[in-house]
Amino acid sequence: MRHAPLEGNERVLGTIALSLATFMTVLDSSIANVSIPAIAGDLGVSPAQGTWVITSFGVANAVAVPLTGWLTRRFGQVRLFLASVLLFTLASWLCGLAPNIESLVACRILQGLVAGPLMPLSQTLLLASYPPALAGTAMAFWGMTTLVAPVTGPLLGGWITEHIAWPWIFYINVPVGLLTAFMTWSIYRRRDPGAQRVPADLVGLALLVVSVGALQVMVDKGKELDWFASTEIVALAVVAAVGGVFLVAWELTDRHPIVNLRLFARRNFLVGSTTLAVAYGLFFGNVVLLPLWLQQWMGYTATWAGVAMAPVGLLAILLSPWVGRRVARLDPRRFVTLAFIGFAFVLWMRSRFTTEVPLEVILLPIFLQGAAMAFFFIPLQTITLSGLTPEEMPAAAGLSNFLRITAGAVGTSLFTTLWEQRAAMHRARLAETLQTGHLQAAQVLDQLAAAGMTPEQALSSVSRLLDRQAYTMGMTDVYLLSSALYAALIVAVWLAKPLKPVPATPTPPERPSGAAKTA
Fold it and tell me: In the chain, what are the helix, strand and coil shares in percent, each to the nearest 5?
């Protein structure tokens, strides 16, 4: 049953409630990243064991997101969304109370599982709250929270851990979750299409858990275990590949699949979701590098690194509503092309950074990136979900979000690994120059010795300078590669079919010719 769009205050409050749920979910995927040393120290485990706080959430969430379509049919959209919000709130509270690492990881698994349907359902409920002509505006509000939250998470998590205590990175979800649940139920309780009796695809569920779980653990642990030099990573890759093949074969032949892979037969869903995933992987992988470089090699504190990253959302917040109002009337492929040109230019600017780059030069591309974010997310989501029925929307949103989340994790792991590899290569070349008696290097050592340093201290200082230079050069290599990849993605988005423009206001029906006038 298709419900009429919301109006007035109900639409505003519904948008706020759904946006809060999205922000809370995305925030929790990254807020614990910078708090791992504090969590590990407080619970008496190694930092390596502490990383399971991140991995457990990511694996559980990756498994649950593609199940959204089946769970929606089984329980109903609104009831499933409300249950997910309340269980997520409960799991967050239990995470803060966890007395040891085992219970914390268990609570994070629960948190990841129940968070799975939140993002796809917030998207579908939001689209159903607006008329078709304002669907782009709805996606603008949803997109802003999705893009800004991953950047906000590490900054907020670092501040809370430093000034309060790490359990509060989870406790802050409790009032937000309760408020979201109350507002959602007040507005949407009469708009639930209800549950359906659908068979449980247990074989598909088992294959999904095994293949996606193995893939997510491989991505999370790949950098730490030196990728395919590790037997564990090779084994996980084999399990993910074999399980994935069997999953695809089973889901395409089962009468009631738990994941509707037939959606990929739709051209716009295939092009839109894959382009969005690759572009988001590039975006997220590059977002992670800059604060790491600033804090590790440029001497920035966590606070100043946050100041440097803060402008990224300004233009996105300002321009997203403008894009949202026009994306239904103009070709979204043009917007995406502008976005990819913008990302390519911004990353090219960053590829020119040196160890002497001032803060204002760092801020400019970050500020400009916000405009590219506004033109990127909303149009690609519009392409991805075009032509789908309301019944197909939860499954499509779940699959699209699964690809995007997985691509973000892959991008983070691959780009940090590539950064370190390029830095090691540059370090070796710079060290070779130093060892061959380069005149400038000898002069630096003499100057340090004249300043009162021992030979060992002078060499240590030079080694630090070499590392700083090498990691800066490695980062600029990654940015230049990413710039080229964004430019190449422009071709991909034009493979999508053009969309029929939606008029800004409904056209009144024409009066039949010859109709009699009534007094």
Answer: 80, 0, 20
Establish if 1 belongs to a structural domain: no
List the chain pLDDT tens, one digit each, 519 residues.
566 777 778 888 888 888 888 888 887 777 776 677 778 888 887 766 776 777 778 778 877 888 888 788 878 888 899 999 999 999 999 998 988 888 988 998 899 889 888 888 888 888 888 887 777 777 777 777 776 776 677 677 777 877 888 888 889 889 989 999 999 888 888 776 666 677 777 888 888 888 888 887 888 778 778 788 888 889 999 999 999 899 889 888 887 787 888 888 889 999 999 999 999 889 878 877 887 788 778 887 766 776 777 777 778 778 877 887 788 788 889 999 999 999 999 999 999 999 888 988 988 998 888 888 888 888 888 898 888 887 788 888 888 888 888 888 788 778 888 898 899 999 888 877 666 555 566 666 666 666 666 666 666 677 778 888 899 999 999 999 999 999 999 999 999 888 876 665 444 444 444 444 443
Residue that the structure tokens 């796809």 belong to: 120
Torsion of CA 128, 131, 134, 138, to 10 degrees: -20
Q: Which residues contact 469 (CB under 8 A, 6 or more apart)?
A: 355, 426, 430
Same domain, 81 and 21: yes
In this structure, the answer to whether residues 56 and 132 fall within a common structural domain is yes
Question: Do residues 432 and 470 both lie within one domain?
Answer: yes
Listed in sequence order, the residues at least 6 apart from 220 whose beta carbon sits closer than 8 Å to its beta carbon are 51, 54, 55, 58, 59, 409, 413
CATH assignment at residue 31: 1.20.1250.20
Three-state helix/strand/coil letters over 452-516: CCCHHHHHHHHHHHHHHHHHHHHHHHHHHHHHHHHHHHHHHHCCCCCCCCCCCCCCCCCCCCCCC
In a domain, residue 513? The reply is: no
Q: 262 to each of 248, 255, 258, 265, 495, how far by Cα in Å?
A: 10, 12, 11, 6, 19
How many domains does the chain divide into?
3
Query: Same domain for 138 and 267?
Result: no
Do 285 and 426 lie in a common domain? yes
Residue 111 CA to residue 25 CA, distance in Å, equals 9
Predicted TM-score (pTM) of this structure? 0.78
Question: Do residue 265 and residue 133 come from a single domain?
Answer: no
Q: Which domain holds residue 353?
A: 260-501
- 519 domain-assigned: no
Taking residue 163's Cβ as centre, other Cβ atoms within 10 Å add up to: 8
402, 261 Cβ separation under 8 angstroms: no
Q: Are residues 315 and 437 in the same domain?
A: yes
Measured distance CA(288)–CA(415) in Å, rounded: 9
- Are 165 and 36 found together in one domain? yes
User: Do residues 61 and 113 lie in contact, with contact meaning Cβ atoms separated by under 8 Å?
Assistant: yes
Comparing C-alpha atoms, which of 106, 63, 65, 107 is closest to residue 215?
A: 63
- Does any domain span residue 31? yes
